[in-house]
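In practice, a research group might receive sequence data for several interacting partners and want a quick structural hypothesis before committing to experiments. The following worked case mirrors that situation: the sequences arrive first, and a predicted assembly follows.
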Amino acid sequence: QLQLQESGPGLVKPSETLSLTCTVSGGSVSGRSYYWGWIRQPPGKGLEWIGSIYYSGGTFYNPSLKSRVTISVDTSKNQFSLKLSSVTATDTAVYFCARAEYNFDYWGQGTLVTVSS
Amino acid sequence: EIVLTQSPGTLSLSPGERATLSCRASWSVSSDYLAWYQQKPGQAPRLVIYGASSRATGIPDRFSGSGSGTDFTLTISRLEPEDFAVYYCQQYGRSQFTFGPGTKVDIK
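A structural hypothesis for the assembly, expressed as tokens:
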């Protein structure tokens, strides 16, 4: 059974970089034709796709966040990571990692990241 | 960029009633790439329907999906207490993913 688990700081200061890691177990981040992605959800609001990395290493980002987002993969640790730079209070959200082919079938439990000084 | 619109924003129904949720796309979406999710408070979303009409693993048959092009529908034939939640549609195209704003199904 595939499992994903987010980890990283729960509090980030404004203008700094948010960094999260998703650890995958029960499957390989470099196997088959899957995307490994990040989705966020501000408190009380809907879901927003941030970006994804393809199994072959290609990256794809939400145009509204593209200038601030970097997603990378570490196949040796079976992890993929998110970096979001120059954060503001509007980046406060629960951040989910998930696997997708054309839809997200496996999700992490999510981690709340608050942007505050 | 394809924009998804969902209606209604909130659907107030009683257990046993039928729920019909709509998802409309700003451009045509391949049926293969349209999905629906259920989300309950404090939980990650759960895949309900993929490929517009295929039920995900473990999803009961009271859930059904239909539609094509720009108009898609999620139907819950008889609401059970555990079905009251927020439902999101999602599309994939050109390596981009988009979610709709969601429909909340709450107890009347």
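Before designing any experiment, note the following. The radius of gyration of chain A is 13 Å. Chain A has a mean pLDDT of 96.
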